[in-house]
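User: I'm putting together a teaching handout on how multi-component assemblies are represented. Below are the sequence lines for each component of a complex, exactly as they appear in our records. Could you produce the 3D structure of the whole assembly as structure tokens, so the students can see both representations side by side? Please keep the chain order the same as the input.
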Amino acid sequence: MRRIAVLTSGGDAPGMNAAIRAVVRTAIYEGMEVYGVERGYEGLIDGDFHEMDVASVGGILHRGGTVLRTARSERFMTEAGRTKALAMLETFEIDGLVVIGGDGSMHGAAELEKAGVTVMCLPGTIDNDMGYTDYTIGFDTAINTVLSAIGNIRDTSSSHERTTIIEVMGRNCGDIGLHAGVAGGAEQILIPEIPLDLNALCRKILQGINRGKKHSIIIRAEGVELSSEALGAEIAKRTGLEVKIVVLGYIQRGGSPTARDRMLASRLGYKAVELLKANSTSKAIGISGDEIVAYDLSDALEYKSELDPTLLALAEVLSI
Ligand code: F6P
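Assistant: Of course. Below is the structure of the complete assembly, with chains in the same order as your input.
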């Protein structure tokens, strides 16, 4: 393994820069050349490669986003796009590629693997929706951002005696909502994996008020079928309460990564290069407990992301 490349793909996530830094520095330490590919698979198709040195990843560890930029590449979904990308990897004589991204990026990497490219995948997404790893890079920062928002919103909800719906991201996965909701003491946590029971929801809000609660914080993960607006209107209609809606949006995808995300990203980036150095076949690298683990890509793609049932039970008990 002489020359490797690294790219970030899909939605950006805090800690991607820490992963890039770990890949670049470990590769140079091991005597390899390393290229950064700009804008994910888009840059792979266009040949947007540049050599990286130790200094090029200085001062990025604490920064959110990704210095390599990212994209959701439509072109890479086509045969023609992938053929161009493969040709670029040959032109630049790349022996191994590190892909940092979510589920879609890993499917893309699996296509490259089929064509004979050695790819190491690192899970980079705030959603924590990749079944083969306990945590993805960016998740911890995102839930801490949501937590800080819950604290602020609670102050004003309580002062005005309001019910507030806080909409969080996560696509079809409820992990951001569940973790931030438990840690933030939300009165209700609505996630796509659990069917919505409007009667139970309104009952619980009213029971809380009847025993002296000044406010209700409802976390609604974006994958929940009923939109925040429709949910708010329904609660207001059924309870007569004033309902406000706060959509956190991209605020939870940016920001300086937490220590946990920096550590995870650094460990995963290091492992990716060590595996490339050992001439390993393509792998998806993740964390299980406190151990860094690596699976064949096809196996990793089979794992389904599942909610922690003990956490669900905990949320139920603590929010009575
Ligand atoms: O995958 C990360 C994520 O932020 C999801 O939580 C969200 O559904 C999606 O990306 C938003 O995508 P976009 O950046 O294309 O708006």
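A couple of points students might notice: The CA atoms of residues 64 and 254 lie 5 Å apart. The radius of gyration is 22 Å.
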